[in-house]
Write a structure and sequence with these properties.
GO terms for molecular function: glycine binding; glycine dehydrogenase (decarboxylating) activity; pyridoxal phosphate binding. The chain has 15 helices and twelve strands. It has about 525 residues and is of the alpha/beta class. Strands 1-7-6-5-4-2-3 form a seven-stranded mixed beta sheet, with helices on both faces. A three-stranded antiparallel beta sheet has the order 10-12-11. Helix 5 runs parallel beside helix 11 (about 360-400) and helix 12 (about 430-440) packs across helix 13. The termini are close together. It binds pyridoxal-5'-phosphate. Pyridoxal-5'-phosphate (PLP) binds next to helix 6. Pyridoxal-5'-phosphate binds next to helix 6.
């Protein structure tokens, strides 16, 4: 057996240091190295038995188009295939393995009931081009979910089709643009965004053709309402505000801000990604908001991360409803119908068009509705209460060790924010994050929000038990104390992971996306 074919590559950079010899295989105990499928497979191997192909006519109909060289796709036997993908899956970290403290991401347990419902053939096997009378049940799911989203937010309507939070932001801002243009106010070209905003907010505004102006934060981490009011005027199209904000704080002046923006002729977009902290307790419609996206994949569970499917329905106020995108599911004479044309009725006359080819993410809709119905009103309320309680437990358990810049101004909402102030000279947030990996935890969100130096943003969500939080707190406390004491071993952490410190900037800027045949290696091994 050649070393290359079995995928053994003794290359782990951290091995062979100190008194611990490197393993011949490159494996670390039962954490197995795995090469690319192109390196371990070969085109003569297959896990499938094909009958011998019948003899073909001497002259191929393909003519000059016939392939001259082998296609070069790697083949594996069945057990090799199973091992390859199982080994790769073990190199991933997910919410089903352990606590995922990423702030702003709302990584929570996904109830298996959701998965069971989403896999029902009537939901999972439908096609977007099926005649509507064959998908009445699927349309009813979209219709019911739309009803609950409008009810929970106290808004007027909802566009279900946007496929993620950022896509929902674009949908909301395009509706604002359509409404302004309809009023002959298309010259309003400025969107105000607080300093603490998620990066997607200014990106969305710029993408939709607006200029972005920053609004400063107060010392206690909230929007500076006076500064915002002072900037309002006839050139301002609107504001984009995250509530609860990315410092983990509730924007208490929201009603006052909305009234001022409306009085100045603008619209209020709310980034609702953090709705998990207030669902069942606050209705954004009562705060004067005109448009808000809801990340179904955050607040209403459903797996996300790694570019997996998202869903970002956008709820609208009465003022923006006529401009919302198509399609809508409506019930007419006991039948669910898809309203697909701008001419379909006065409610949709000003629609700015469509966000996507079809109707949105069916699998996500089914999961979210299952989550809403299985929790009920009291259950959803408890979700937000427990999420906030868990975050405050983390904040108060660690604010004696880590600097909590907004800790003194009161309780937080769904996430606890710390800074790198107080770490030893030369130590930063990245060292704490890498140390956490050795303790078996996925790092928290780092260096965001930008208003806090070396930010560490921890969002526990409601689904972590007190025991899980206590273990995380003990780990973060220990790593933070090492960083404060200047423990040099932390600068080279993680020590137990298969890879230590990678050049993430280089990987992002110059990704190696093309596989090159390592023929010299293969020959050497034979
Ligand atoms: C997650 C998030 C977004 C973007 O949502 P996606 O679904 O990832 O596009 C926007 N704003 C905030 C505050 C978020 O947490």
């Amino acid at each position: 057996m050649s070393i290359n074919q079995s995928g053994w590559r003794p290359t782990a950079p951290e091995q062979g240091k100190g008194n611990v010899p490197a393993s011949v295989t490159g494996n670390k105990a039962l954490m197995l190295e795995e090469a690319l499928i192109f390196e371990i497979g070969d085109s003569h191997t297959t896990g499938v038995d094909f009958a011998t192909a019948p003899a073909r006519a001497a002259t191929s109909k393909l003519g000059a188009l016939a392939r001259k060289a082998p296609i070069g796709l790697p083949g594996l036997s069945e057990p090799e295939t199973v091992r390859h993908y199982t080994r790769l899956s073990r190199q991933n970290y997910g919410i089903d393995l352990g606590f995922f403290p990423l702030g702003s991401c709302t990584m929570k347990h996904n109830p298996r009931l959701n998965e069971k419902m989403a896999r029902l053939p009537g939901f999972s096997d439908v096609h977007p081009l099926q005649p509507v009378d064959t998908v009445q049940g699927a349309l009813e799911v979209i219709h019911q979910l739309a009803h609950w989203l409008v009810t929970l937010t106290g808004m007027t309507s909802v566009a279900m089709s946007p496929k993620a939070g950022a896509h929902g932001e674009l949908c909301g801002v395009l509706a604002i643009r359509a409404a302004l243009e309809a009023k002959g106010e298309g010259h309003r070209k400025i969107i105000l965004v607080p300093e603490s905003a998620h990066g997607t907010n200014p990106a969305t505004a710029a993408f939709a053709g607006y200029s972005v102006e920053d609004i400063p934060a107060t010392a206690e981490g909230r929007v500076d309402t006076a500064a915002l009011k002072a900037r309002l005027g006839p050139d301002v199209a609107g504001v984009m505000i995250t509530n609860p904000n990315t410092c983990g704080l509730f924007e208490r002046d929201m009603r006052e801000i909305s009234d001022a923006v409306h009085a100045a002729g603008g619209f209020v977009y709310c980034d609702g990604a953090n709705f998990n902290a207030i669902v069942g307790r606050v209705r954004p419609g009562d705060l004067g908001i005109d448009a808000m996206h809801i990340n179904l994949h955050k607040t209403f569970s459903t797996p996300h991360g790694g570019g997996g499917p998202g869903s970002g329905p956008v709820v609208f106020s009465a003022a923006l409803t006529p401009y919302a995108p198509l399609p809508f599911v409506e019930k007419q004479d006991g039948q669910f119908v898809l309203v697909e044309e701008e001419t379909a009725g006065e409610h949709h006359a000003g629609s700015f068009g469509r966000m996507v080819a079809f109707h949105g993410q069916m699998g996500m809709f089914t999961r979210a509705l299952t989550y809403i119905l299985s929790h009920g009103a009291d259950g959803l309320r408890q979700v937000s209460e427990d999420a906030v309680l868990n975050a405050n437990y983390i904040l108060r358990s660690l604010d004696d060790t880590l600097d909590a810049p907004f800790g003194p101004s009161g309780p937080c909402m769904h996430e606890a924010l710390f800074s790198d102030s107080g770490l030893a000279e030369g130590f930063s947030t990245i060292d704490v994050a890498k140390g956490l990996i050795d303790e078996g935890f996925h790092p928290m969100t780092m260096y965001f929000p930008l208003v806090v130096h070396g930010a560490m943003l921890v969002e526990p969500t409601e689904t972590e038990s007190k025991a899980a939080l206590d273990q995380f707190i003990a780990a973060l406390r220990s790593v933070a104390e090492r960083a404060k004491a200047g423990d040099p071993s932390l600068k080279t952490a993680p020590h137990f992971a298969p890879r230590a410190r990678l050049d993430e900037t280089l990987a992002a800027r110059k990704p190696v996306l093309v596989w090159k045949d390592p023929a010299p290696l293969a020959q050497a091994a034979e």
